[in-house]
Structure formats: C-alpha cells, structure tokens
Design a protein that fits this description.
By secondary structure, the protein is mainly α. Helix content is about 40%, strand content about 5%. The protein is built from 6 helices and 4 strands. It has helices at about 45-60, 65-85, 95-105, 110-120, 140-150, 155-160; strands spanning about 5-10, 10-15, 30, 35-40. The strands form 2 sheets. A two-stranded antiparallel sheet has the order 1-4. Strands 2-3 form a two-stranded antiparallel ribbon. The chain starts with 5 loop residues before the first strand and ends in a 16-residue tail after the last helix. Residues about 1-30 have low confidence and may be disordered.
Length: about 180
C-alpha cells in the first residue's frame, strides 16, 4: 500500500481567552489552529498481514488482541519513521515492549521483506541489536521523532521503557 489513512483535525480559537463563544468572535479574532494530520499505521500494512501479525503476537507473547494491536501499531509507526529518517544519524530505538512486535514482524520474513521493499525504496531495513542496552534516553527521543513524523504515539507503551533503553547498535542506521 502506498497511501496511508489520515485523520485531519482542524480547530478554531474564537476571540480572546474568556470570550463567551463563537457568537462574540470577529473575523480578526478567529484564527485556525495548525492542521494536524495523524498517520495511521494500518495504512502501511495489508489487512491480512496486519491480522496475521496480531495472531502471531498473541501466540508468542502473553498479550490479548487489544494489546497486540497497540504494540503492532507502535512497531509499524516506528519502522516507517526509521525508514523515512534513514541516514540522519538519529539512532532511533524502541524499548523491549514494542521490540516484541518488531521481532514478530521481522521473523515473518516474507511479509517483512515485502513491507520493506514497498516502503523503503526496495531496500531492506536491517535490525542490528547491540548486546548491551544503552540507557541513554533513545527510547524517549524515538517516540518524539515518531510523533513529529505525524503518527499518534501510544505514550504508555513507550514510557515503560524510558529507563531501560533499547539495544540498537550506536551509530548504525538500523532499527
């Protein structure tokens, strides 16, 4: 899939703070807020592949369907952002919790290879784990990079691993 589903959110602020509402707004006081497009990770994975990865997550880890969807959504958002930020030296890294979903996807090699080919200009996004965890704040930085890339971040999943950062190889453009 080459397009993603997006949700466009537009809000308006009417008049100065404390104004009674839109009836008191004047043309000069009504300012649109910044348009925010939220990228949906489901738009990057075929439905049958998404469903398969959820089943694999539930088979291999003690998670229910709701948590499996949260984890896989976070993993896809992370992988797409890593592909888009490739070569920028950001040392992106997810924590152990989201890494479970990344590993399930990578081990489903045919689907992961096709995902990479489609979204990474035919290339393969390698996974090069380091032996030791970094404890350098990279998980928190990565979550913010993903949010800045337009994905909705499930902060509770990311915050869990802020103190025990992931093992991605320093200086490597991997995930």
């Amino acid at each position: 899939m080459t397009t993603s589903r997006c949700r466009l959110v537009v809000s308006f602020h009417y008049g100065p703070l404390g104004a009674a509402g839109p009836d008191e707004a004047t043309e000069g006081n009504m300012t649109p807020a910044v348009d925010t497009k939220v990228r949906d990770p489901r738009g990057y994975v075929k439905r049958e592949v998404w469903d398969r990865e959820i089943q694999l997550l539930m088979r291999d880890h003690p998670v229910d369907e709701v948590m499996a969807n949260r984890l896989f959504g976070a993993a896809v958002s992370y992988l797409i952002t890593a592909m888009e930020k490739w070569g920028q030296g950001l040392e992106m890294c997810c924590g152990r919790l989201i890494d479970m979903a990344v590993h399930v996807f990578i081990l489903d090699t045919k689907n992961y290879r096709e995902f990479c080919a489609e979204h990474f200009d035919g290339k393969f996004l390698e996974h090069i784990p380091e032996i030791e965890f970094k404890y350098d704040g990279s998980v928190e930085r990565t979550a913010q990079i993903i949010a800045d890339a337009g994905f909705e971040v499930d902060w509770k999943l990311w915050e869990r691993d802020y103190g025990a950062c992931g093992p991605c190889s320093p200086g490597a453009d991997c995930h």
